[in-house]
Amino acid sequence: MLHFAPDSSWSLIALGLCFVLVCVFEFANGFHDTANAVATVIYTNSLKPKVAVVWSGLMNLLGVLLGGIAVAYALVELLPPDVLSPPNGDPAVPMLVSLFGTALAWNLFTWWFGIPNSSSHCVIGALVGIAVGDSFLHARDLGHSVDWDQIWKVLRALAISPVLGFVGAGILYVLIRLLVRMPALYRPPEPDQKPNPIVRGILVLTCTLVSFSHGSNDGQKSIGLIMLTIIGLMPAAFALNPQAFLPADRLHVAIEAARPIISQYDRYSFKNDALKAMDRLSDSDPAHETPAEKRGDIYQVLSGLRSVASNPAASSDEKKQASKLAAQLRPTVEYAPIWVRVLSALCLGLGTMIGYRRIVHTLGEGIGSTHLTPAQGAASEVVGAGLIMTAGYTGLPVSTTHIITSGVAGTMVAAGSGINMKMLTKIALAWIFTLPVTVTVAAVLFYILA
């Protein structure tokens, strides 16, 4: 599949399929992740489901529009540069099919059984699998051809954030119990009975915070995936950012400044590719390269600069210079038009509207030995929103599902109501198996297709 001509009918069909797959994946993401934002207000009858989903969708959209794209490309940069933009300019169809097919299949599998699973885990596992599959495909050393520094950075955020959610929500719940004397906050909701206006207002506010923070973090993940697909479909129009591409003279200066610090370190499997890319970018005739090829070369340079920035042998000045040069080059290839952000939010909202019930039921009744109370829902959502928003603005992808689920579990422990170990075991097993399953499936699928 890597040898399809970029303008052939087979390439266009395959890339069109990838575009559908990324929209379906984000739609399925709504089943899992956005359902966490509306679970409390729906479960406590604070808002009708349709109203809650529409409001959550609007807040997701606002979060996507205001949240930047740091998380989107933190995930994209997990891929090796030759997979991200093949040197011959062909569309990376095997990468896209492996990524979306693997992540979507596991997402739907866990949703069917009502298990709150992380879409972030699915995507990250599939991306790592593609990087591993690419190493086997080219018989490269796994230690240096996969950007493990970037992978560990992402995985640390995924591993630590649920622990912070569990502890933080538990502590906040205890503080609420000590400071707020309102019995309605600590009683499970009665069927078809709305909570009092104050409790209702609190829960709508916390739902708003989680929805906005979810858009500022999780919504970004699909932005990067949508951009990968439309760049493959229409490279001439979308491979480079027309608002931020450096003029030839400034690009030449940046490339020449990057050359000595990349060339002196051997702890990098793509070093020769990066040096050749710099030669092409320094060519006095910019017409020699198509936009897709130029984008691929810039990613090769960025990959080399990241390698220097994370190399223990590099001096602090070299690391700072590498980071500074990367910051100059990155906006030329890492961007997202407004319509891509809106599409991401729409897919999230529609998915939530269709498939929220299973996850809402699990969060409301499945995690604890007793049903969720308004105070527990509010505590878990306030802490979750703070963690998710902080991670979104620092460029770290985290899982809304794991943070909110851990937060609910933390409040159950703090309340002394106990935890449903059967459901918690299901969630833990999904958490444990998601990465190895998605890494393995994506690696094998990419190897076969490529």
Automatic annotation (TrEMBL):
It catalyses: phosphate(in) + H(+)(in) = phosphate(out) + H(+)(out). One of its GO terms (molecular function) is phosphate transmembrane transporter activity. This is Phosphate transporter. Keywords: Cell membrane, Membrane, Phosphate transport, Symport, Transmembrane, Transmembrane helix, Transport. GO terms for biological process: phosphate ion transmembrane transport. It is a multi-pass membrane protein. The chain crosses the membrane at residues 12-31, 52-75, 95-115, 122-139, 151-176, 197-216, 222-240, 427-449. The keyword Transmembrane applies. Belongs to the inorganic phosphate transporter (PiT) (TC 2.A.20) family. Pit subfamily. It is found in: Cell membrane; Membrane. It comes from Kozakia baliensis. Pfam families: PHO4. GO terms for cellular component: plasma membrane.
